[in-house]
Amino acid sequence: MTGGEMSAAEMGAGALGAADMRAGEKLPPLEIPVTRTLVVAGAIASRDYQDVHHDAELARQKGSPDIFMNILTTNGLVGRYITDHFGPAAELRKVAIRLGAPNYPGDTMVLTGTIEEVDGDTATVRVVGDNGIGRHVTGTVTVALPVSAPSAGSDLDLGPAPAPDPLNDPPGAAT
Amino acid sequence: MTDELGARLKAYEGQDAAVAAEGKDPVNAPMIRHWCEAMGDTNPAYEGPDAKAPPTMLQVWTMGGLSGYAGGRTQAYDELLALLDEAGYTSVVATDCEQEYVRPLRPGDEITFDSVIESVSELKTTKLGTGYFVTTRMDIRVGPHLAGTHRFRILKYAPTRRRRQQKPALRPRPVVNRDNAGFWEGIEHHRLLIQHCTTCDTLRFPWLPGCNNCGGPDWTPVEASGDGTVYSYVVMHHPPFPAFDPPYAVALVELAEGVRMISNVVGVPYDKVRIGLPVRLEFQSYDDELVLPVFRALEEAG
Q1: The dihedral sign for the CA sequence A68, A63, A133, A97
Q2: Where in the sequence is the domain holding A39, given as residue range(s)?
Q3: Closest C-alpha among B70, B66, B65, B31 to residue B51
Q4: Can you give the CATH number for the domain in which A134 is found?
Q5: Per DSSP, what are the bridge partners of residue B124?
Q6: Which run of H or of E encompasses A109?
Q7: Number of CB pairs, chain A paired with chain B, less than 8 A apart
Q8: Chain B closest CA to A64's CA: distance in Å?
Q9: pLDDT digits 0-9 by tens, B37-68
Q10: Which of A71, B143, B219, B287 could bond to B94 as cystine, CB 3.0-4.6 Å?
């Protein structure tokens, strides 16, 4: 794991609750070194054997300077960016992405996010991933967070978010 | 101009791309772990007895993998892609992915999916090349329950040729300065000019500001007859330079007037160039601006 990255585990389970989401809030950026290994591992883990994602020679024959990251990997990284930030209790509802400048090996992609809207327990986050040659991805993620203190006897989080629980959400825990 | 191909492609809108197709593997912990390892995703929600699959893996469970798709795929989608291939739109790149997650997938879930060709765009010109965007929408189910929807857009395109390939590289330009400007003016008028020292009556080449025999600064130009012989040569194999096509012979040609100059020998294969080969001056045009003196072999060397 590279410096500056924080995994969900390191952030602590349930670090954030619905009451911690504020429209306009910016998520800390996440730097993804685009290694050849990541491009190939992502393609194979997503069962995508298109040669342009693992064979540089054939990629060049098709007019690409090198292999490049597949869309499923970008999708997975965007999802990870959101759940890393909001914690393992966060549930992705929608991920919509559009690709631009390809992620070639040796580049670095920096994911940034801004909370655009908060509606009850659900937030819409605008995500952008820039690399050395331009904008790799723009996207919108809808994510739901459980209310901070689930009420006993109900496993539905349809009700309005209660006030933050000072025990579970000490001031400064949600940054 | 009407787009006949476009009209044929449009006919596929609304057609099924897959009906009740089955995932090749049930949702399973090893594939989830491999995915998480690749993504660097350490979310504990994806591990342990209550594990769910990362929602963004939705499409993964529908992939054909190395051995291709299992049953359930219709001909329509393959036909559509084949039409595009035949028309020269052979490259493909995914541009958009929109997923909605309705219920989590967990190890053991066996998915089925239905897919429809939602739209085919008009012919579009992009940075990559011109082509058509094809959008499909897929519903992924476990039993009767909808697990998620997946809208996917690809661009099928004819790659734009690189500028380098469109425009052949140009030969390097000669460095023209006040000492040799007269020589290049002569070349422009298809005359090969040699300097003649008026002090010591010696010819000199290449052009110099003073005589390399007596140091005298005064000279007059003399036009070469154009006859010569190969005094020496090398064959250039490597490295290749833009605008040059190795192997080629670089010759030191002795002109009838007695001075020698470096040039190319043309009209004979590189491996037939020999010392003593008689040659005749020619002016070869390489592009709109560049004319160079070269020497054509006068007899087929043995």
Answers
A1: negative
A2: 13-144
A3: B31
A4: 3.10.129.10
A5: B131
A6: strand A107-119
A7: 125
A8: 9
A9: 999 999 999 999 999 999 999 999 999 999 88
A10: A71
